[in-house]
């Protein structure tokens, strides 16, 4: 089986940890590089969280330090949801920086993508700052990118502001660069993460999936959603699901723009399903049971792969 080469831009963050864990052990994927960026919490934490996760999982994927702030917008934080360090609920053993590759993320990504004999897939599960920098600095990189799959945006109401989802609101200018790039884009918006939850019974199944399951159970048990919803929502892994379990999703083509000038709507995703010029495929529904079964199975496989 030919594996899909994958680069991950991430801001761990609890659900990012789950998405990375699945990706690192998925038989279909070959993770080439992980780019921690600012986002849920500051870069110093997201970088360390990535290194700590790899130490816990016994993986050795190169890590490149990404952007420490948005292109234009003031920096925001989701520490109230994920904890000060981004991973409230589980004490990872502190890792050294031995996996960190020095250099600019955009240049290192460009070299890896252009050197790949197979087109590379990009996974964006945080603000899109580093991908925007890549596309602006090296526009010809598009020719060797298979697709960009993101968790971000919203069809209706937002979770950062009334009309803006957190990952896009974190760096609206970067998101607009990405959507205007000509890349093939697939998008798991906020509504999909809101629907793709796991039940308490399924949480128990996750807890019983060895050390990896216990780690994720501990983290997910400590998410504090701003709306007070007690369900365990699985946001970032939905983007991985779009790659590995597309049959669980219904998608529609749309034109996606990001509002950059609105006083009350800054960072909002304007998703036009009626457009004759679509630039993305947007997930509009998810089979909750199929997704949850896939999610739990991938955690089991990750635990087996870690041993």
TrEMBL record:
Q: Which InterPro entries match?
A: Inosine/uridine_hydrolase_dom (IPR001910), IUNH (IPR023186), Ribo_hydro-like (IPR036452)
Q: Which residues form the Inosine/uridine-preferring nucleoside hydrolase domain?
A: 6-292
Q: Name one GO biological process term.
A: purine nucleoside catabolic process
Q: Which Pfam families match?
A: IU_nuc_hydro
Alphabetical keyword list: Glycosidase, Hydrolase
- Lineage, top-rank taxon, reads Bacteria
| An example Gene Ontology molecular-function term | purine nucleosidase activity
Q: What protein name applies here?
A: Nucleoside hydrolase
One Gene Ontology cellular component term attached to this UniProt record is: cytosol
Q: Does the keyword Metal-binding apply?
A: no
């Amino acid at each position: 089986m030919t594996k899909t080469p994958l680069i991950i831009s991430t801001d761990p963050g609890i659900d990012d940890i789950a998405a990375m864990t699945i990706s690192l052990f998925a038989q279909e994927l070959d993770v080439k590089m992980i780019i921690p960026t600012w986002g849920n919490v500051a870069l110093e934490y997201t970088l360390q969280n990535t290194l700590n996760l790899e130490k816990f999982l016994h993986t050795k994927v190169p890590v490149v330090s990404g952007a420490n702030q948005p292109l234009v917008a003031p920096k925001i934080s989701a520490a109230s949801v994920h904890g000060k360090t981004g991973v409230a609920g589980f004490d990872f053993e502190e890792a050294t920086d031995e996996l960190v590759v020095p250099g600019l993320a955009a240049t290192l990504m460009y070299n890896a993508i252009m050197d790949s004999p197979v087109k590379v897939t990009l996974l964006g599960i945080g603000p899109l700052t580093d991908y925007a920098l890549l596309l602006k600095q090296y526009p010809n990189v598009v020719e060797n990118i298979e697709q960009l799959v993101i968790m971000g945006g919203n069809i209706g109401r937002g979770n950062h502001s009334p009309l803006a989802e957190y990952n896009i609101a974190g760096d609206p200018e970067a998101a607009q660069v990405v959507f205007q790039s000509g890349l093939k884009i697939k998008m798991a918006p906020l509504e999909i993460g809101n629907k793709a939850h796991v039940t308490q019974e399924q949480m128990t199944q996750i807890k019983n999936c060895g050390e990896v399951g216990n780690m994720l159970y501990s983290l997910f048990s400590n998410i504090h959603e701003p709306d007070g919803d007690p369900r365990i929502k699985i946001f970032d892994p939905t983007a991985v699901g779009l790659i590995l379990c597309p049959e669980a999703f219904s998608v529609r083509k749309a034109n996606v723009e990001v509002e950059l000038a609105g006083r009350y709507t800054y960072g909002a995703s304007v998703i036009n399903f009626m457009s004759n010029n679509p630039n993305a495929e947007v997930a509009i529904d998810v089979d909750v049971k199929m997704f949850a079964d896939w999610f739990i199975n991938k955690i089991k496989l990750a635990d087996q792969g870690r041993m």
